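User: Predict the structure for this protein chain, please.
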Amino acid sequence: MSVKDRLIYLPLGGAGEIGMNCYVYGYGPEGEERLIVVDLGVTFPDMDSTPGVDLIMADVAWLEENADRIDAIFITHAHE
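Assistant: Here is the predicted structure, written as structure tokens:
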């Protein structure tokens, strides 16, 4: 462990709401943290305000940009 290592927590979705859970945890030097993704959930829209939208999910662009740093993806549960 180095003094320059850091722990990060990045909620991409689901924080403070029901559904759409997607959390990233990382550890290591800044910008080089090894990452673990927990869940990649969806939520359902309010059909009155967003007709035609079936599902809403977190923006995964950051995960795509940092895919080489992801060591694991844990899915905690599923829905039918």
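The CA atoms of residues 26 and 53 lie 32 Å apart.
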